[in-house]
Each structure stands twice: as C-alpha cells, then as structure tokens.
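seq:
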Amino acid sequence: MDPSTFDFAGYYRERVRTAGRPERSPDYWDGRAATMSERGFDTPYVRTFLARMDLSGCSTLLDVGCGPGTIALSAAPRLAHVYGLDHSPIMLSAFVENARARGLTTATPILHSWDDDWTDVPVCDVVVASRSTAVPDLEAAVLKLHAVARRRVYLTYPADGHLVGDDVRRAIGREASALPDNLCVVGLLHELGLHPTLDYLPGENRLAEAADFEEFRARIDRLLGGLTVEEVPRLAAYFDERRGRPPAAPMKWALFSWETGG
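struct:
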C-alpha cells in the first residue's frame, strides 16, 4: 500500500462508525463532573502533559473538552488568560468553581461542542484537546483546533485505540472493533499537511481502582455504553479470576503537537 494514496480521514470515520463506541451526550458528562473534578488534577498524565507543553511566547490558551479545567487551570498561572470549552454545562460549572478555588480571575468558560459554529471562539496562542478527541470526524476536529491556534496545538488520543483493554473484551465476548490507533492519526495529520511531534503519556488504570465488582462493572458499563445480560456473568468470572491482580493494563495516550506558523 502506498501511504500517500490512502484516505486516512475516511478510514478513521468508517472505523469509528463501526467501533460500537457510544457518543457521549452532555448529560453523561454532567453526571461525571463531580468525580472528575475531585481526582483529575494531580495525576501522572496531567503532570507529564504540562511538562511537555511549550508555553514560551504564549499568553492565552484554549482547552477544548476542558472538563473541570484539568489542563487549562493547571497552566493558568503561567498565562494571561485561559478559556475552557465544553458541551457539558455542569463541567463548565466545575471549571468556574475550580478557577475560583485557585484564586484565578483569568479563566473563561465557553459552552460549545465539536459540532457547533466556532466563529465566536477566540484565537489563542496554544490550543489543547486533552482526552477529548475520540470523535466521529477527527479531520473536522483537527481543522477546528488548527484554525483557532496562533502558535501551537496539543492533542491526545488513545494510543492503541482502546478505552477498554482487549482482555476485558475477550472475556465478555465483545468483538466490537477498536477505534483507529495513533498511527492512523499520524496519517490523517500528514494528509492535512501537518507535521506533528509524537510522544506518549502515562495513563491511570481506572479499572484497577475499583473497590469491588459492582464498581468495576459500573466502570466497564460506562466505557462500553452498556453491558448485556449475557456479558455481566462473564465479566464477573473475569473479575474473580484476576482477584489480587490489576484488571487490564493502564491506558497509554499518544500526544500530538504541532506549530501553526503564527
């Protein structure tokens, strides 16, 4: 196969369409805002992400899919102003509360989704999309990020295309395809004439943190968009078999960054 003739953007859209991953509504993220706000700021992923960002010569930052402000508010003391964009009103309320708790008066929330018109979104020196890019059309998302970035873009994507490991899927008999992996993203960015730097960030094993089977089941149910009655006992057998050992491996995130020429 000649990579120069391959349609990575189209391949990505088709793979996502058949992957069986549910689209997350604002209501879903509204329900997760409190938990993410409590535990999301001081993690190896966040610390490494912040360390990888080059903020030299920059005064403004836009965080797309900002959630409770994990990246934007952590970087805010080094910048003149940060903006948090999210389609969940409750997440944005958490963003505002977290900014207030940190004494930040230079943080502005923006209620928008990936699909909205972004003509009112401010152009910023740095644009970030952290763990928010598993979208139906990544090409369209990248073009939006690039258009509002004056200097640099940083985005992360599941490195192997999985939010739940292969071992869990096999155990419950789930054969749904994974999302495209990070090499597809490399090809897609190349198609758009972008030349990113690729790095990898550590992720937390959220499944290993489950205190018992019910919590583990709830997390898997949330990630897969619902378990069938046949899958629940299979998952219970998997959980019991691995008792004393972490279920699944920690996720690894691919970090893409590029200069926009501003």
